[in-house]
Amino acid sequence: MCYGKCARCIGQSLVGLAILCIVANILLYFPNGETKYASEDHLSKFVWFFSGIIGGGLLIFLPAFVFIGLEQEDCCGCCGHDNCGKRCAMLSSVLASLIGIAGSGYCVIVAALGLAAGPLCLDSSNQWNYTFLDTEGQYLLDKSTWSQCIEPRHVVEWNVSLFSILLALGGVEFILCLIQVINGMLGGICGYCCTHHQVRTCVKKSNMTVKITTPRQNHNLPLFQCNLYILLVLICKTLY
């Protein structure tokens, strides 16, 4: 199995999901396409947490581009093993996956809280408040109560739809990043497969290296020591 191709597929999927999260979060600021409620601060406080823009959007772009670039990494590595550099890159992608897990988790949590609290709206007593806050989310199952929100019109449907979309997208992002954690660990520990073109490139580079370093002593390390070297590199990256 080519772990790099799997990572690239996950990265491309995350880019699309991140864009959708940003769009859904932006739409929450304009109920029914109107801008006055945002300027008058008559929106749910959970809209201002930027869960889709930051959590499900910007924080997902970083690991997504890392995953996409994994397949383009140089196949020739260190420690005398051709694919050691690839394996180190795959293990490093686990750190990027953790950032994606944190961002998507934030998106899911805020979206769930936004659904549970309900929208900020003008009720029958002519007061702006969270009409469904005390229902603990039960209003979602009883659409007949949604008419209690007089203004903005259809704000309940607007909030429920968009927060549900953010919840679903964030959940998918979380799962994909979790899959890449497993994929990255397998690719780093079990090895990385290269394309035929990359293998030929590696052979050419290896031959050049042999010609240049012929007078020198061979310092190839066993595979176990190479794995130890990779682990030390990851620790250093984490600390610094």
UniProtKB/TrEMBL annotation:
Specify whether Glycoprotein is a keyword of the entry. no
Membrane topology of the entry: Multi-pass membrane protein
GO CC, alphabetical: membrane
Q: Where are the transmembrane segments?
A: 12-31, 46-70, 91-117, 160-179
Location relative to the cell: Membrane
Give the InterPro entries listed for this entry: L6_membrane (IPR008661)
Tell me yes or no: is Transmembrane helix among this UniProt entry's keywords. yes
Source species, please? Cnephaeus nilssonii
Read off the Pfam families from this record.
L6_membrane
Name by which UniProt lists this protein: Transmembrane 4 L6 family member 1
Keywords (A to Z) from UniProt: Membrane, Transmembrane, Transmembrane helix
For this chain, the family text in UniProt reads:
Belongs to the L6 tetraspanin family.
Can you tell which superkingdom this protein's organism belongs to? Answer: Eukaryota
